[in-house]
Amino acid sequence: MEQNLKQMVQKSLESFTAPGRDRNIVEEGNVSAVIVDKDQVGVVLDFGDALPDDIGSFRSEIELSLKKLTGVVSANVVVTSSSKKPRNPTIEPEGARQVKPVPTLAPAPKAPPTPTEIPGVKHIVAVASGKGGVGKSTTSINLALALKESGLSVGVLDADIFGPSLPMLAGLDAKPETKDKIIQPLVAHGLKLMSIGFLIDVDQPVVWRGPRVMGATQQLLRDVAWGPLDVLIVDMPPGTGDVQLTMVQQAPLTGAVIVSTPQDLALIDARKGLAMFQKVNVPILGIVENMTSFLCPHCGGESHIFGHGGAEETAENLGCEFLGGIPLEMAVRASADGGVPLMTQQTDSSAKSAYVKIAKRIAEKMS
Prior knowledge:
- The protein is built from 10 helices and 14 strands.
- The chain is an alpha/beta fold and 367 residues long.
């Protein structure tokens, strides 16, 4: 069945001709991949070094057409412009002598897509970690709120397609509206917010392959009315996979903040995440050590459950700034579970003071 559906999709694509082109996208060789997963369809289009005009409308037109095919529930089209290839290859006449190409050691690398600005957004800051469970999402929303308190207009994009946490952190279960095919972000605590969790049932697992994940990331980034914003905080998923690659290729990141616990195991992965951003020339704004210590709510004693000072030492060894440590407090956990971030509460929390201090340093670096 999937094979028949794939053939239907490929046949349907022959009816589309990109703006400014003479032949359809199949004849032009623009269809890089067609992926069918039960009733879900993903298409990757590669336009070489010449991206057609009004490509967003063209992509939407294809998606709408594919959704009308029998057996298709959802369709996602990903557009890339990352390689140079001949527009009209010469066809050798039958029987012509074939000349074998000279072998090379490796194929020529594709030029990465050039990031383009998000309308109305001045700065984009990625908050990342090499592994999950280090409190990155909690750190993201509280840093965003601390930046807002300093007078900046701030938004938060939850880029974790497989494990969105922003709906719980913000205490929201509403669905965003769409105006003229542009998604309107939800607003809570004075922040503009968007997450795949607002668009799908958060209790259902997201079983998507690479192209569809990359497409969803692009849409959350570019098909949302973000502006005007001084800062867009992007809560990145753990690791160094498709979402991270899409983000650094699509958006001009002002910089990245790496979050880790003091634990050696977490720091190993944090170094990998940091190295990824360095390889793609994204500035590292600094490292944050989350859960740097535990403050007992009864006696006030401090315990270093996950070790201490590891992130600061790592920052020194890697030549980047240590932005500060955030203590592990009961209020941090309770506020995250309750959908009322710590920064919105009237408290003398040490963690809240740490968020404010780190946010101030990030703002200084952005300016």
